[in-house]
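Table 4 source record.
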Amino acid sequence: MEVTDIELLDRICRNDDAHAFQALYLRYWERLYVDAFHKVHSREDASDLVQDLFVALWEKRGTLQVQTTLATYLHAALKNRILNYFKHQAVRDKHIPGVSDAFRVEPETACEAVIRRELHVNIDEEITSMPDKMRRVFLLSRNNELTANQIASKLSISEQTVRNHITAALKRLRCRLQHR
């Protein structure tokens, strides 16, 4: 004899019965999925919508009050999820072009490539000409991405000395590169 929706729902809500929930899930998942797919035209999104509905049903099981048939309740809940899906789609479609334009990188021109290479050469030359300790601290900071504390520990110097070397190296780079 088949257990009714009301009995399954009662077992879920009162006893946290996972077996009753699984029976309910198996009973309604395919119907809800087909309805969702006909609306959103995406297998993944339809599946996600139905999964989210069942997750919410399980999470609300202690306070769930179904005033209609369970089938009507589930279809209404799915309809609301689909409406929210389309609202989010509309917002995303409205804003994505602007966001992608903001992050679009134009191809580098030949002139820009030459300038970039020259800049790198100048930076490398300036770093090479730094005093040994300053150069080591700066490279550990920039190339190895170590913190002042890590550099201080590695080189057996104080954190303040590390900060002083980094500040001096950056000042030196700015000054020399402005004059080139």
